[in-house]
Amino acid sequence: MVLAAVLAGGAGCADVEGLKSGGDLGTAHAPKALWKDIHPDPAPTGQQPGAAATVPGLPRAPARTMRGVDALAVVRADITSAAAEDGGTGRLVDPRAVQRLALCTRTADGGPDCPVRPGVLHDLTGDGREELITALDVDGRLSELRVYTVRDDGRIARILARRGVLEGVEVAAGHLAVREPTSNPQYTSVSDYVWDDTTHSMSLSQLTLDECAALTDVPLPGTRSRCAR
Q1: pLDDT tens per residue across span 25-46
Q2: What's the Cα-to-Cα distance from 132 to each of 108, 170, 200, 204, 218, rounded to whole Å?
Q3: Under 8 Å CB-to-CB from 198, ≥6 apart: which residues?
Q4: What percent of the chain has a predicted confidence (pLDDT) above 70?
Q5: Rounded distance, CA 25 to CA 204, Å?
Q6: DSSP at 173
Q7: H or E element: which one contains 4?
Q8: What is the per-residue pLDDT for 127?
Q9: Distance of CA 31 to the CA centre of its chain
Q10: Contact at 8 Å (CB) between 92 and 85?
Q11: Which of 53, 102, 146, 174 has minimal CB crowding within 10 Å?
C-alpha cells in the first residue's frame, strides 16, 4: 500500500488544466535482507511447540469427548511431560510452569492458588465432540494456552500449545482467536486458529491487528491507553 501510494503520488495531480508534476517524492526501494546467510537449525521431530501430540500417562476417554475428563489432570500430565522432554530449556513449556502446578491441590478445581484457568468446552474440530480449552498462568502476565481433544481411539491429545500474554481468548464457529498486546498500546494482535485436518492440530489461519478501546477509569502515564478487555 505504501509503494502504491508513492507511485500514485509520483504520477502528479489532475486538475482542470490536466496533469501537473507533484515534485520529487523520493524513490521507492526494495527491502534489504539482513543476515540472509544465517538460518536457525530446524526443530527436532516432535519438538515443535504447537504440534499435536498424545498426552502420556492419561486413561482413555471412553465417551470420546473431553466432557467429564479431569481437566487439571490433563494439564498436569501435559506440562510435566513437556518439561521433561525439553529438559527445562523452555522450548515446549515455560520452566516455571511445573513449579506453578505444585500450587494446585487434589481438589476438582485445584484450590484457590491453582494457576490453571477453569476449562471451557467447545467444538473446534467440527466433529460434534467438544474440545477442552484452558490455560496455565505462569506469572501475572505470561500464560501457557492449551487445547485438548479426544482421538477416535479414546486417547487425549494436545492440539494447540501457545505461550503468550492472553489479553483475550474468544471462540466462535470453530475459530479460536487469541488477543495479545503490541508495542503500540492502541492496537492488539489477533491470532486466529482453526482446525487443520491434515496436521490434526489447530493451525494459525490469520494474523491481524485490532484497535483497542481506551479504559478511561484506569489512568496510565502520559497519553498511553490500554485495551478494554
Answers
A1: 667 777 887 787 877 676 555 5
A2: 15, 13, 15, 18, 33
A3: none
A4: 76
A5: 38
A6: T
A7: helix 2-10
A8: 92
A9: 28
A10: yes
A11: 102
Set of cell numbers at residue 228: 478494554
Q: How far is CA 219 from CA 165, 168, 214, in A?
A: 21, 21, 10
Give the pairing of strands 18-20 and 201-211: unpaired
Contact 87, 98 (CB under 8 A): no
- What tens digit of pLDDT does each residue of 146-193 get? 999 999 999 999 999 999 999 999 999 899 999 999 999 999 999 999
